[in-house]
Write a structure and sequence with these properties.
With 335 residues, the chain is α+β, with helices and mostly antiparallel strands. The protein is 33% helix and 21% strand. The strands form 2 sheets. Strands 2, 3, 5, 6, 7, 8, 9 and 10 form an 8-stranded antiparallel β-sheet that branches.
Amino acid sequence: PTRTRAPRKTASAFAPTVHLPHTIPPPAPLRALTAPTVARPPQRPASSRFSLRLSLLGACTLFVAFAVAATAPRACLSPLVRTAVTKNEAIMRKRVAWVDSLHGAIHHGGSRNKRLIKKNKYVQLATTAPDGRPRCRTVVFRGFLTDSKRYGECAMTFITDGRSKKILDLKENPMAEVCFWISGVSMQFRVSGKMHVLSAESGDDEALRIRQDMWQRLPEHTTAYCAWPSPGLPITASPPGDSKGSVSETEESNASKRFKSLAGQLSGGTPGPVETASPGETDGSPSSSRKAHNNFVVLILEPDEVDHLRLGTNQARWAHTLREDGSWHVTECTP
């Protein structure tokens, strides 16, 4: 029998029939659970967040540092003489312009820069010798007196050996002048007035109290030089018959040993035996604290004239004069 071929299906014949369902809205419970889209706030960049953390850390560090500084013990400060800012000095600085300027110049590098503050306290002290010759030397400014009515509110303190030549000069003429030169701010302060000598022979109770307070405030290696032989005394005698004063090798060796021992004392080391200034002299023992205390002298300058000079691009000069009522008169002068 003849087979009849089935008709060939086209591609359209194999296409599935797609029935699109009607769009049905979701039920009410499902629509309620669907969370709305919330826009997130813009995030800070990583570098900005890191800077903010550093700023907060720095603020906390400063707060802790100020808290520690405010509660730190101030045993190193004495009730009469001190170098830091106290209540009495703050009051005095408001009343006396040159004291405020001097304090600011000395501490211009910050109160923590102790090396710079120490350097700014080296001053030149000028006196007049009994024969009329001027004499000048470098001393260390030890601060103002705070509660002494006898020497005034601007009294300045220094220390020295009672056997030095400046004591003889001041006994003959008590007028003296000190000069500050502070290179960091290009300022010069010349302070002149009457110098008071507070020694172990001072009969005044206030003078003895100030002297003892200063002695207890200073470290031992600072006052040890008061037990050495008299300042300016030759270390060894010249060889017999030598009119030119030449020194032999033995004497040079003795002098070297002596200065090495004194240098060890200044640096806080163990002091060794110190040779006397001349044969037969027995007063050269720096280990004697009693002798050092007897030779220890406090100098108090009672200012009555101050010359304040400022150099640099903006030069200026002021003359401060003490009045009879205790106030200061200020006059601006030509530099």
